[in-house]
């Protein structure tokens, strides 16, 4: 789950700093979607002991136009399925780089 939390943090920070691509201008709402229900619940937990999550909460409190939302995994949502496919390809690339004997 920590990896998913870091991705949320990166997306929130990137949107605030203008480094994340967005079609939105000004005060329009930006939604950051994740298929990690536990990550969303952790971000919503006001009693979390995790500093990274508290940092995300602080950024979201200061930037009310950024929302973190959950989407059901493997339910056919195009963007989510594309993200899963890219993540799987990245894992294969990394594994091949780490273990040259895995190459076919």
From TrEMBL:
GO terms for molecular function: nucleic acid binding; RNA-DNA hybrid ribonuclease activity. PROSITE patterns: RNASE_H_1 (PS50879). SUPFAM superfamilies: Ribonuclease H-like. Residues 1-24 are annotated as: Disordered. Residues 1-92 form the RNase H type-1 domain. InterPro entries: RNaseH-like_sf (IPR012337), RNaseH_domain (IPR002156), RNaseH_sf (IPR036397). Pfam families: RNase_H. Gene3D superfamilies: Ribonuclease H-like superfamily/Ribonuclease H (3.30.420.10). This is RNase H type-1 domain-containing protein.
